[in-house]
Design goal:
Layout lengths: L2 E7 L8 E7 L6 E10 L2 H8 L10 E2 L3 E9 L11 E4 L8 H4 L7 H4 L8 E3 L2 E5 L9 E5 L3 E4 L5 H6 L3 H12 L7 E5 L5 H11 L3 E6 L4 H8 L3 E4 L7 H8 L6 E4 L4 H10 L6 E4 L13 H5 L3 E4 L7 H13 L9 E5 L4 H9 L5 E5 L1
Parallel strand pairs: 4-8, 11-12, 11-14, 12-13, 14-15, 15-16, 17-18
Antiparallel strand pairs: 1-2, 2-7, 3-5, 3-9, 3-18, 5-6, 6-10, 7-8
Helix pairs in contact: 5-6, 8-9
Bound molecules: adenosine-5-diphosphoribose and zinc ion.
Length: 365
Amino acid sequence: MTIRTEAAIAYEVGRPMVIEQVELDAPGEGEVLVEVKAAGLCHTDLGVWEGHSPIGATFPLVLGHEGAGIVLETGPGVTDLEPGDHVITFAPECQLCGACHSTKGNFCEAVLSGYGAEPSITAGGRRVFAGYGVGTFANHLVTTSSRLARVRKDAPFDEISYLSCGATTGIGAALIEAKVEAGASVVVFGLGGIGLNIIQGARMAGATTIVGVDINPQKGAMALQLGATHFVDSSTLEGDLVGHLLELTRGGADYTFEAVGNIRLMEQALATARIGWGVCTIVGVAPSGEKLGVLPFDLIMGRKLQGTAMGGVRGKSQLPEIVDWLMEGRFDLKSLITARMPLSAINEGYDGMRRGEGLRSIITF
Ligand code: APR
Ligand code: ZN
């Protein structure tokens, strides 16, 4: 049996998405049919759509990987989800492969084969791929159970859809990947939807100096509201940014994060990490092919450089607890959701992102 639904299809690189009726295959072995209730507009989708992301894609494509919804039907072999469950889409955690069995990291072996997995969508007789094997810019989707985390039912869909990538990436980068500790000093470069959540994660960890850096002075107020102790507007700063940050952190930060995707900024983030033990975590996705210039001596001096995808979080096993933290008020997503819109307004939503407006826009169904 096929399922009919409405989806936003990207037919070509950078061309506006088209809202169309599509057909979904019924969920196969290990797959689940989800009614999407909310889907977030993430920067990473923009990069894929415009064709400059290192994450490749095959068009036509239903983009969108941030989503939350309700399970409608499960395919054969799905034992951990049932109709009526509330779920968040996330990078796969199959719980069977070598990587999932290890306690290290969140790179399930299915992640590497995930993007542009077998298409389950048909539009006008043509097969359409689902972004990241998910495709949340549609009222319904079929994906593998490994990409769905079951969460409590009292959590609002719009807020938890943001936990599907952006917010979790930021909070996880601080708490799980970098393991910021109480009393630490932290510098976050870039205060967008991800950087602001790194600030929240650092605050939850008990960091006492939390510096946010952005070229947009409007980001300062929100950073301070969410826990930053200092804001540096690097567009008007006179003199050397790294020197200023070394002074603010009394010789370098215990933890620095780059959440823009700009390699010059990544180099500055490494230079801002404290000699001896400072850890620089790369969160932003730089354009495909760009190379980072690192002086080996900076590393010899005890600085550490690492990267993270999805903040090191394993979706299926760790998102339920992160949703608990949200519901306990330990961090704030409400203030970060600056626009809600129907699927039909998705192109306008992305136009706003290109202009740098707002923090997180959510499609609600
Ligand atoms: N220095 C400081 N801040 C900058 C700079 C710069 N040179 N250039 C841009 N910014 C700021 C912007 O003003 C904005 O506040 O970085 C922020 C980026 O935020 P968003 O556009 O909301 O992007 P976000 O969703 O947070 O993602 C950031 O992480 O996962 C990746 O693909 C994602 O590469 C992207 C990055
Ligand atoms: Zn796995």
